[in-house]
């Protein structure tokens, strides 16, 4: 595998199965925390349960019918009749009854009957309480509300049975309260029906009086109308019939008169035309109809005879002859009589016409009066019908209300109820609460869940690098290996050379594994110079650098350790060599590389001390002389390992990373902060440093979190060199 110059601080792109298993192992590592929390919660639950008072329950079973038993005739309806056949209506009815059972009215009946408002035991007051304090407590206590809170109504499944349960600290009192609640409910149900019936009766009585007055007033209005319309002997129908007959009679007579008037008018008109056409001829009247009657014919005959006689005398005598004059005088008399008779005939025709017209006028007047009377009678008939209907309606309503009032009075005398007791409550000596076993089980389960939550929370709060998953998933680095914790009793020098002095130990084996991983990082281009650094101080980078150099030297390579930590150098102390001549001296041109390099007790392992501490380490490492020093050392040695300062403290490590083949990060297990490690990697990424990977240092293999992962490093081979626990190397 190759090193990378990509952003190593970006971390893994997402959660992997390894990270999930890492979380699972982290939670399992804190299993004792989970168990402790579970035991604590269970203990608290047990203590709370044992401190709770024992509650007893008793239940009374009632059968609630939708309607009460029908004793009276079916015609008698009760005010609160409940005739339901629909499932949802019945369900609503029983839900209503449940509310009534738990109502304040029912509870008040029980409290008043048993005197629970003065019962200190029922109210939960201490028995040894001061009388004054008890009196105030009794005054402020709500016995009704307390009783309601203890009542439970459980309807029977697919039945009309309703179970009334009451809980109390006394089993006998629980049974008593349950029975009393059932009795109070039955009494309240009956009282409610009676109250409703009484209210209905009172309303009906008032309505009956009002309807009686209205009915009487309606009858008097009908009587007054008849009296005003003169209908005491005949009815309006008869009166209308008589008026109709009169109108028909007048119409017939009016038709006859109008026919006669038409004839008379025609006769008079004919006479007027004859008179107009005759001029001075006085004989025109002879053509008048009626002129040939007997008297007129006699006059005409006499007139003719007298005229003939006068004509004969005219022939015989002179005009002045007395006989002729007498004859002419008689002729004039007869003629005058004839003309008068004819004139009377004409006047008779005109008189008959006038008489017929007068008769028509009178008939029209009578007909108009009769029609007006008919309209008036019709109007009276309408008013009479309205008053009669109102009177009849009032009478019917009066009779209906009177009948309903009698039914209510009769049904009110009944004391039947639709509720009856099936099973009375009996004292039950087994408490229903607290449920000790159930509470303990719930407490145990909740404790486990809470413990799991605490373990997850602690795992989420874990912000240090402690495993391979943290290195690979969180930091995104290649994992080179682990370095187990060394024995605390060993001297600092022994810890630095632990791999050399304990070659068969787990530490030595782990360092050889890291060496192998580094050598195979890039087989085609093996790393020549290697920078070993850390994110912060006290993470074991110097010790790891020495142990890694020892492991490489044991493989036959000539290895040079450079102490480039020019602020706190310690390689010279680890190997016991002088520090008067070193890197700082060579960079400024003092001395030679051969004199500055010191051999160690480890074959093929050499060390180049820091030398005198310079005032400007970063600038010194950035010089051309230092690069030339690295090139020269590379010609004489197979591997060069640079012990650099921490990345987050100074920039020296970043400067060295640009001049080496790669960088190895040392992370102290359980101490190196993830954020600090990411910041350190970010500084390396900014200078495009090549990262080989990270080494997890100071790993306590005895911890459960590492036992499964790194089991191969312990328990195999001789154990005399195995570390037995201790503190981290510096």
From TrEMBL:
CDD domains membership: BY-kinase
Residue ranges annotated as transmembrane are 32-50
User: Do you know which InterPro entries this protein is assigned to?
Assistant: AAA_dom, Bact_polysacc_biosynth/exp, GNVR, LPS_length_determ_N, P-loop_NTPase, Wzc-like_C
In short, the EC number is: 2.7.10.2
The reactions it catalyses are:
L-tyrosyl-[protein] + ATP = O-phospho-L-tyrosyl-[protein] + ADP + H(+)
Gene3D superfamilies, A to Z: P-loop containing nucleotide triphosphate hydrolases
What SUPFAM superfamilies does the database record attribute to this sequence?
P-loop containing nucleoside triphosphate hydrolases
- Cross-referenced PANTHER family, in alphabetical order? FERRIC ENTEROBACTIN TRANSPORT PROTEIN FEPE, TYROSINE-PROTEIN KINASE
Protein name as it appears in the record: non-specific protein-tyrosine kinase
Question: Origin organism of this chain?
Answer: Corallococcus carmarthensis
């Amino acid at each position: 595998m190759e090193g990378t110059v990509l952003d190593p601080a970006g971390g893994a792109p997402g959660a992997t199965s390894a990270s999930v298993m890492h979380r699972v192992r982290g939670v399992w590592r804190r299993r004792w925390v989970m168990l402790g929390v579970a035991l604590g919660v269970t203990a608290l639950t047990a203590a709370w349960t044992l401190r709770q008072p024992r509650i007893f329950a008793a239940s009374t079973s009632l059968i609630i019918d939708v309607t009460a038993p029908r004793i009276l005739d079916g015609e008698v309806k009760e005010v609160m009749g409940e005739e339901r056949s629909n499932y949802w209506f019945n369900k609503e009815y029983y839900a209503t009854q449940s509310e009534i059972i738990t109502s304040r009215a029912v509870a008040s009946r029980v409290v008043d009957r048993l005197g629970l408002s003065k019962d200190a035991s029922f109210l939960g007051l201490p028995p040894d309480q001061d009388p004054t304090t008890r009196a105030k407590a009794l005054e402020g206590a709500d016995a009704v509300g307390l009783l309601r809170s203890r009542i439970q109504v459980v309807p029977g499944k697919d039945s009309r049975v309703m179970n009334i349960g009451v809980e109390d600290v006394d089993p006998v009192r629980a049974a008593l309260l349950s029975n009393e609640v059932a009795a109070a409910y039955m009494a309240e149900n009956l009282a409610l029906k009676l109250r409703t019936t009484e209210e209905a009766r009172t309303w009906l009585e008032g309505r009956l009086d009002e309807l009686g007055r209205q009915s009487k007033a309606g009858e008097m209005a009908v009587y007054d109308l008849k009296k005003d319309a003169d209908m005491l002997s005949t009815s309006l129908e008869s009166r209308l019939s008589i008026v109709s007959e009169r109108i028909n009679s007048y119409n017939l007579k009016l038709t006859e008169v109008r026919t006669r008037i038409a004839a008379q008018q025609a006769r008079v008109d004919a006479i007027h035309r004859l008179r107009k056409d005759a001029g001075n001829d006085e004989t025109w009247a002879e053509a008048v109809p009626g002129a040939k009657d007997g008297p007129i014919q006699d006059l005409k005959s006499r007139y003719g005879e007298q005229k003939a006689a006068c004509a004969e005398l005219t022939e015989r005598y002179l005009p002045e002859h007395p006989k002729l004059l007498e004859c002419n005088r008689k002729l004039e008399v007869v003629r005058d009589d004839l003309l008068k008779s004819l004139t009377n005939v004409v006047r008779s025709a005109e008189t008959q016409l006038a008489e017929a017209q007068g008769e028509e006028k009178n008939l029209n007047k009578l007909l108009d009066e009769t029609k007006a009377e008919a309209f008036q009678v019709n109007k009276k008939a309408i008013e009479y019908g309205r008053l009669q209907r109102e009177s009849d309606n009032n009478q019917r309503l009066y009779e209906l209300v009177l009948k309903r009032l009698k039914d209510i009075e009769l049904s009110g005398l009944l004391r039947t109820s639709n509720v009856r007791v099936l099973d009375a409550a009996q004292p039950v000596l087994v408490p229903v609460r607290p449920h000790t076993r159930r509470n303990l089980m719930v407490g145990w389960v909740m404790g486990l869940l809470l413990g799991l939550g605490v373990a997850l929370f602690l795992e989420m709060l874990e912000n240090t690098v402690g495993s391979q998953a943290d290195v690979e998933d969180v930091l995104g680095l290649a994992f080179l290996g682990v370095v187990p914790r060394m024995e605390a009793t060993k001297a600092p020098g022994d810890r630095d050379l632990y791999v050399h002095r304990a070659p068969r130990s787990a530490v030595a084996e782990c360092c050889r594994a890291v060496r192998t991983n580094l050598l195979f990082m890039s087989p085609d281009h093996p790393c020549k110079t290697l920078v070993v650094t850390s994110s912060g101080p006290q993470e074991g980078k110097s010790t790891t650098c020495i142990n890694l150099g020892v492991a490489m030297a044991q493989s036959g390579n000539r290895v040079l350790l450079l102490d480039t930590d020019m602020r706190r150098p310690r390689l010279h102390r680890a190997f016991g060599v002088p520090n008067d001549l070193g890197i700082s001296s060579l960079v400024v041109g003092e001395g030679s590389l051969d004199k500055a390099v010191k051999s160690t007790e480890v074959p093929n392992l050499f060390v180049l001390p820091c030398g005198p501490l310079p005032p400007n380490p970063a600038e010194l490492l950035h010089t051309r002389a230092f690069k030339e020093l690295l090139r020269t050392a590379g010609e004489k040695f197979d591997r060069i390992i640079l012990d650099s300062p921490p990345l987050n403290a100074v920039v020296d490590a970043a400067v060295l990373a640009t001049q080496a083949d790669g960088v190895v990060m040392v992370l102290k297990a359980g101490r190196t902060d993830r954020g600090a490690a990411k910041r350190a990697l970010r500084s390396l990424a900014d200078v495009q440093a090549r990262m080989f990977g990270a080494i997890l240092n100071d790993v306590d293999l005895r911890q459960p979190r590492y036992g499964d992962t790194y089991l191969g490093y312990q328990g195999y081979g001789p154990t005399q060199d195995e570390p037995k626990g201790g503190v981290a190397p510096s």
